[in-house]
Amino acid sequence: MNKYDSEVISSILDREGYSFTSSPREADIILLNTCSVRAHAEQRVFSKIGSLRKIRLKNPHLILGICGCMAKHLGDKLLRKFPYLDLVVGPNDLDQLPRILREKKRPVISINTPNRSEFCTSLLREDKIKAYVPINFGCSNYCSYCVVPYVRGELKSRDKEEIIEEIRRLAKQGYKEITLLGQNVTQYGRDLRNGINLSNLLEEIEAIDGLKRIRFLTPHPKDVTDELISAMSRLSKVCEHIHLPAQAGSNKILRKMNRGYTVEDYKQIVERMRERIPHLSITTDLIVGFPGEDEHDFEETLKLVEDIRFSASFTFKFSKRPGTKAANLKPEIPEDVKKDRLRILNDVQRGITLDLNKRLIGTRQEVLAECINPKNERQLIGKTGQGKVVIFSGDSGLIGEIVHVKVKDARLWSLLGELS
Ligand code: SAH
Ligand code: SF4
């Protein structure tokens, strides 16, 4: 979502007549798009703002701003910490940027718009083959550790016709793959109250000519329905991959996280999906060191990883986010325990990922060729429907095509193959 928001910001600046430079010293405006999900993301931005201080103070015309979730989360605290900042603009206020840029008085702080309005048509997009298309903004789930509902607001779905129109336009421009975006895409349409949901949205997108692949990110286990599983299995453009964050393998912890499912529910969903969708690849997000997580709880998370055999896991140490319920939960887990658990979990997952990749050696995969390999111009990089990265020799004319590749070798993060 943040990558998408950065494209929104770039597009607004482009429309306002700005052009792009990779050198901060040449810039008339520098906007940092930011994330508040974990403290680490915020710390990196703090040091980035600090490193731009000199440039800002030397150049009185330079506009230096913070956009996105940190702007909303920290508001005028940012101005107190960094008095040389000119703009603080929240994720739901990005459409105010043209007005804000024209204002003479600085600093400007704009963070109070509760929900995002529709301002995402005809973007300057980095990629020419794949595009992100948001279908809902915000989140009303309030997982106890998560800052997203506070910074991005409550769930708000986009109008279906707008989405379809946008994807038709992208397909006409030559885009082959779209990823539908939302903090919880499985709740798409709930607030529209007109019977529209993710399953029937996917159905309509399937019919769009020229488009080859459809992905969506992120579904929530408690909202995965049989209707969705059936749509995924029936619709040929919907990829055989789901990123389904489990967060933990212990029911005690899942309850404290306010996730709304048990580990048994999670396993049952996976079973139902695997029955209907052959070759389904499942990836996940996991948090270690949530308050009160004891050795036994952590072992249950390891067991879940071993039982499901995820293709990959995005793993995080619990990070205390001010304003969330979990920020007050006790007992907190010491940093070194969190570190150890993260390392053990990652080791287990790496073994599984490599093993699953090796099993693909000798198979023939459908690969969407996406770009030239920056490390070897005679090679292309693409992805399988499962989302695995494949490197193979091929001509740049194949970019945007779905080609068949025989897998010859497997590494942790990529497969090596040849056209067949
Ligand atoms: N809406 C998505 C993603 C939310 S943020 C979802 O519900 O799955 C992406 C991931 O960051 C989450 O899935 C979670 O694993 C992790 N995360 C969120 N808040 C966190 C926190 N306070 N500490 C550690 N990890 C966190
Ligand atoms: Fe955060 Fe939970 Fe919403 Fe995901 S579903 S954005 S983890 S509150």
Describe the protein:
By secondary structure, the chain is an alpha/beta fold. The chain folds into three domains: 109 residues, Methylthiotransferase, N-terminal domain (Rossmann fold, 3-Layer(aba) Sandwich), CATH 3.40.50; 229 residues, pyruvate-formate lyase- activating enzyme; 56 residues, OB fold (Dihydrolipoamide Acetyltransferase, E2P), CATH 2.40.50. 35% of the residues lie in helices and 22% in strands. It is built from 13 helices and 17 strands. A five-stranded mixed barrel has the order 13-14-15-17-16. Strand 11, helix 12 and strand 12 form a beta-alpha-beta unit. Helix 12 packs parallel to helix 13. The two termini are 36 Å apart. The mean pLDDT is 96. The site of iron/sulfur cluster has 10 residues, from helix 6.
Q: Give the overall pLDDT as a whole number.
A: 96
- The total count of helices amounts to 13
Please summarize the sheet with the most strands. Answer: 5 strands, mixed, barrel
Helix content range? 25-40%
What is the CA–CA distance across the termini? 36 Å
Short description:
The protein is 35% helix and 22% strand. The protein is built from 13 helices and 17 strands. S-adenosyl-L-homocysteine binds at residues 37-38, 145-146, 148, 183-184, 218, 220, 245, 247, 285, 287, 316, 318-319, 321.
